[in-house]
Amino acid sequence: MGMKNAIIVILVIIILAFGGYILINKPKVDDSGNTTQGEPVDTTPTPVVPTPPPVETPPVEGPVSVIGKSVEGRDISAYNYPPNGEASGTGDKRILFVGGVHGAYSWNAALVAYELMDYLAANPSIIPEGVKVTVIPVLNPDGLAKVVENPAEKFTAAEITEPQATQVAGRFNGNEVDLNRNFDCDWQASGKWQSKTVSGGSAAFSEPESQAIRDYVEAEKPVAVIAWYSAAGGVYASNCHNGVLPETLALVNAYAKASGYPAHENFDFYQITGDMLNWLAKKEIPAMSVLLTNHTSTDWAKNEAGIKAILSYYAK
User: Fold this and answer.
1) Could you give the dihedral angle defined by the CA atoms of residues 73, 78, 79 and 83, in that order, rounded to the nearest 10 degrees?
2) In terms of domains, do 12 and 128 share one?
């Protein structure tokens, strides 16, 4: 019996071993019904494909948007009226007003832009149907910061207590570049301001402030641009060797007639290179500069009348 039991045990072991082999090497059937002999299992982990980020929907136009940063990291903001593009401002005609290009040197040019913002907020019905108004009150916040604690907020003339030398130094941005010599019309590395030589930057649009307004203009395509400076007391047309645009001339005359400022087709006190308004003329965008009477007044009564004339022009 011992021998018989041993033989039985051996047979059972052989049968179990053979059955296990068959199970392990059982043909596999693929999705097409074909059989495949046992193949090694691929243990390589399946690569994880990252989920692409959702496409961001452009934000609805709001009351204010930051269009860029200054050399020293300050916001350059654009304020829109009507604030959400509703009601009377749903059309394609965007009029852009710009102040503070020369920072502290022409601080009243920023202040008149803030006064316009207050006026539009208090009198929204002044904006004709089909028109939007955008105000960039301070293009050069680093320069204005030399005489104003917070250039992003409206200030008063009484707050300006810094000496004239500081105000002049604030004409330039954080890289000591005159922004109104940094645009692409007759750009030169060395420009003129009165009898002084000033920096026009390392190239046209080398400065973040000029890049910001360039990109904004190219994206939004305003029908007209009006910029304030000081001081000469007049309205000046833009031109970059292609003649004054007929619409520019019409705007200059309308603003001058309403405000009482004299109208000028050319700024001929000295040679200007890299001028912002002349670059706009090169792009065939009607543009004009309003030079305030002096370095302290906003000439608000004059400018209010001129602004109304521009809005009426685009209400036609």
Assistant:
1) -110
2) no
- Angle among Cα 122, 128, 134 to the nearest 5 degrees reads 65
Q: What is the Rg, in whole angstroms, of the alpha carbon atoms belonging to the chain? A: 35
Per-residue model confidence as pLDDT tens for the chain (316 residues): 455 555 554 554 555 554 544 444 444 444 444 444 444 444 545 444 444 444 333 344 579 999 999 999 999 999 999 876 543 445 579 999 999 999 999 999 999 999 999 999 999 999 999 999 999 999 999 999 999 999 999 999 999 999 999 999 999 999 999 999 999 999 999 999 999 999 999 999 999 999 999 999 999 999 999 999 999 999 999 999 999 999 999 999 999 999 999 999 988 788 899 999 999 999 999 999 999 999 999 999 999 999 999 999 999 7
Q: How far apart are CA 190 and CA 97, in angstroms?
A: 27
Residue 121 lies in a domain: yes
Report if residue 48 sits inside a domain. no
| One domain for residues 20 and 71 | no
* Backbone torsion region of residue 310, taken as left when φ is above 0, otherwise alpha when ψ lies between -120 and 50, otherwise beta: alpha
In this structure, are residues 104 and 167 in contact, taking their beta carbons and an 8 Å threshold?
Answer: yes
Distance of alpha carbon 158 from alpha carbon 177, whole angstroms: 27
Residues 11 and 96 placed together within one structural domain of the fold:
no
Domain limits for position 77: 64-313
| Assessment of whether the complete model's pTM goes beyond 0.85 | no
Same domain, 216 and 276: yes
Domain co-membership, 206 together with 275: yes
CATH number at residue 143: 3.40.630.10
Angstrom CA distances, 138 to 45, 77, 171, stand at 57, 8, 12
- Contacts of residue 83, defined as CB under 8 A and 6 or more positions apart, other chains included, come to 62, 63
Structural domains counted in the chain: 2
Residues 6 or more apart from 121 whose CB is under 8 A from it?
81
